[in-house]
Amino acid sequence: MIPRVTHLTVQRSTLGNLQSNLRTMADLQTKMSSGKNVNAPSDDPAAASDMLRLRADQRTSNQYSRNATDAEAWLTTVDTALTSSLSALRRARDLTVQGGDAALGAQSREALAAEIDGVKAQLLSQSNTTYLGRTVFAGTSNAGVAFDSTTYAFTGTVAGVTPPVERKVGDAVDVRVDADGAAVFGEGTTSVFALLDDIATQLRAGGDPTASLDDIDTHMDAMLTQVASVGARHNQVLTAQSTLADRQLALTTQLSSIEDIDLAAVILDLQAQEVAYKGALGATSKVLQPTLLDYLR
């Protein structure tokens, strides 16, 4: 049986095809104006899922990068304080050696003792170095200072340990960004501050301070150990930053390959679709030429 073809059938079929062509052209224009292949999850559910995962990875990577930047600033602050402290302690050692000269008069000894006091004040200031309001030698303590200026008590000890300040710079990479002030400067009567007080007292009393040289060397060794530790951790952070930069570039490239359009290809497709749409309009105008007036004639 031959199906009946009427003008209404042709009209509906033709308008449906025109609407389909127009919709395709509109989709291409949307892609070209937005620069994106996927403007809604319904455009490509699989690609949309991949894009969500990649963006989540980007946010995680960006947070690690911010953590690494903060860690680098902490470690730089600690390293600067340790370097200054070592320099000051070396000066104190030189002064102690000078104080061993039995020919020194009382005035000279007083001058050496006063300079020793100045070195102690400098070390005390370095031990209480802060970064963004946080003491870098007192762990997680919020006391405001790492060492009391009179008793030299260490404020960072909690239940016998110094809780470290750490920053996560990778999925399984946590880096300590502070330094244990008790390990660097000692504490209380065994601190480097108390040692320098004793040396100054011996100088003023006319005694021989060179007996304290071994103790000074012990504190210098402790500082050098911490400098090496900070350097190793700083290098770890720099490596993490380099890795994170590579990771961020890779994620951006992967996301772009899914999300961004090939502009040249879309322009060609749009031009071809426009030609097809104009052709369909021309064909429709010829097919639907008869009107009601034509039949009334």
TrEMBL record:
May I have one GO cellular component term? bacterial-type flagellum hook
Which controlled-vocabulary keywords does the entry list? Bacterial flagellum, Cell projection, Cilium, Flagellum
Q: Where located?
A: Bacterial flagellum
Protein name (database record): Flagellar hook-associated protein FlgL
**Similarity-based family:** Belongs to the bacterial flagellin family.
Species of origin reads Cellulomonas soli
Q: Which residues form the Flagellin N-terminal domain?
A: 6-140
Write the gene name: flgL
Q: Name one GO biological process term.
A: bacterial-type flagellum-dependent cell motility
Q: Which residues form the Flagellin C-terminal domain?
A: 214-296
